[in-house]
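Changelog note: in this version the structure field was regenerated for every chain. One regenerated record is shown below for reference.
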Amino acid sequence: MRFPYTRLFAPADATGALAQEDAEVPGAVHRYRTLWISDLHLGTPGCQAQALLDFLKHNECETLFLVGDIIDGWQLRRQWYWPQSHNDVIQKLLRKARKGTRVIFIPGNHDEFARKYLGNNFGGIEVAEEWIHLTADGRRLWIMHGDLFDGVIQCARWLAYVGDSLYEITLRLNRHLNSARARLGLPYWSLSGFLKLKVKRAVSYVSDFESAVAREAKRRGVQGVVCGHIHHAEIRKIDGILYANDGDWVESATALAEHADGTLEILYWRQAPPLAPRVTHAVTLPELETA
């Protein structure tokens, strides 16, 4: 069986505004069987709403999963922040539902308020606690946000709130850093993503989370699992289970896509520096073979 690969896109300039010629490029809209996005954190300054709007404009699918933390209720309770671009994202999602895309929203811990409305439909968007998705090649994938496998969330909620505040500080530093990098014509770089991959305890947390999720998926008798929560896009096999995380729209601007043949792929939709040309396939990594 062929293992999925990763693709990198850089669809917009630093303001999120598309060049006029981009709208005229034939085939600019990519079509997929299924798309998964999560951890948008609308309602926070860290949300990359302009990049997300550009992604939604240039990618269509039959089914769109919103895998939790779409709206950041934690931050909104502390301080209200809701610019027009965040409202535009909500309108864009509703418009997709109206035009025939099946949109399924699985709440996470930051938008846990929506768990009171499981089984309801709002403007064509279905709200569900979890989902079993059948891929085109016959694999059963368990879809859920992932916070139920976070020991900090479950056992020390106060610590999760403290960590969330520290994370916001890191993101604020990250925005200032990348503003300076953009002025120098340098590409985006995620400080929080770097720390997540380099700090030993963070690496251990990610690994433990992934293993716990895969074990539960195996217990449920499915072939794979798709989740979000930890803001770390990944596709790999864990003890025979396909583990897929669609990443986030705060640090990495990533999504998970299913092609017509059932192949899964991580999409990176990165904003380019000012005046940089639009790049559609900047990097294509070779496909990995499973053992």
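Spot check on this record: Confidence is low (pLDDT under 50) at residues 1-6, 8-27, 152-162, 272-291. The radius of gyration is 18 Å.
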